[in-house]
């Protein structure tokens, strides 16, 4: 199935409903929730999924597991997705919180097959076998830490969401404290209590995660570093490697495999 809202086919008596959807650049899917669990794969482009307690960055060829009844919204680049909507009883092992996972070459091919099966595929035979193997592959997919916590404090969350649209590694804590009419010390205390991170560490992580979509789009590393406010590509690469365990260049090469 292609470009069909899940609400139109949620009633289907099948454990998995597979849908391909293509989104234009800068598209936002407003807050919603699904009765089924969702496996949301970015075949091309990148996405950011936001829930009440955080955001998850999904670069090209990664996927996010969204538990049933989890309220979320999605921000996309020019992206083509493969979504599996799965009956909760079929995946009792699904995480209780969103989780980004690696997608193997085998799983990528299976997902392309899945969106081509009939809506009411036979519960026996090849189509059912493809769906069954997909669930096995999802269960063994390696998790990736591409999440960023968001505070519940309403005014602070609004500042965080605004920052995510245009992150800057040198965004001053004094500006945030001034907007909230608190001291820098109080701001950091609130930040740590609400997110588990200091303002500086949250800002660093937000910048690195934002860079993943730019890397997926093929932007030059020097240009990405400059757009985030780093003094040099080397400074950006050092922070990227510290947080994600590989350099931007190596990360992009691995994503293309």
TrEMBL record:
Lineage, top-rank taxon, reads Bacteria
**Domain HTH araC/xylS-type span(s) in chain numbering:** 154-254
User: Which organism's genome codes for this protein?
Assistant: Amycolatopsis coloradensis
Q: Which InterPro entries match?
A: AraC-bd, Homeodomain-like_sf, HTH_AraC, HTH_AraC-typ_CS, RmlC-like_jellyroll, RmlC_Cupin_sf, Tscrpt_reg_AraC-type_HTH
State what protein this is by name: HTH-type transcriptional regulator RipA
Arranged from A to Z, the UniProt key words for this protein are:
DNA-binding, Repressor, Transcription, Transcription regulation
PROSITE patterns in UniProt: HTH_ARAC_FAMILY_1, HTH_ARAC_FAMILY_2
Q: Which Pfam families match?
A: AraC_binding, HTH_18
This entry's Gene Ontology molecular function terms read:
DNA-binding transcription factor activity; sequence-specific DNA binding
């Amino acid at each position: 199935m292609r470009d069909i809202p899940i609400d139109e086919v949620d009633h289907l008596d099948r454990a998995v409903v597979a849908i391909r959807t293509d989104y234009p650049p800068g598209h936002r899917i407003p807050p919603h929730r699904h009765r089924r669990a969702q496996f949301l794969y970015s075949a091309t482009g990148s996405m950011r999924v936001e829930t009440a307690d955080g955001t998850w960055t999904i670069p090209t060829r990664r996927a996010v597991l969204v538990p049933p009844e989890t309220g979320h919204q999605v921000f996309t680049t020019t992206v083509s997705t493969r979504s599996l909507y799965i009956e909760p009883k079929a995946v009792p092992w699904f995480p209780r919180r969103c989780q980004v996972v690696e997608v193997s070459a085998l799983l990528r091919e299976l997902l392309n097959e899945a969106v081509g099966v009939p809506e009411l595929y036979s519960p026996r035979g090849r189509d059912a076998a493809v769906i069954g193997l997909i669930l096995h592959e999802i269960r063994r997919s390696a998790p990736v830490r591409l999440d960023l916590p968001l505070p519940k404090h309403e005014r602070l969350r609004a500042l965080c969401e605004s920052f995510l649209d245009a992150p800057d590694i040198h965004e001053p804590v004094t500006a945030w404290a001034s907007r909230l009419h608190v001291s820098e010390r109080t701001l950091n205390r609130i930040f740590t209590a609400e997110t588990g991170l200091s303002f500086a560490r949250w800002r660093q992580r937000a910048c690195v995660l934002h860079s993943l979509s730019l890397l997926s789009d093929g932007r030059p590393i020097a240009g990405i570093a400059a757009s985030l406010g780093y003094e040099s590509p080397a400074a950006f690469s050092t922070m990227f490697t510290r947080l994600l365990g590989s350099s931007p260049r190596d990360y992009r090469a691995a994503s293309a495999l």
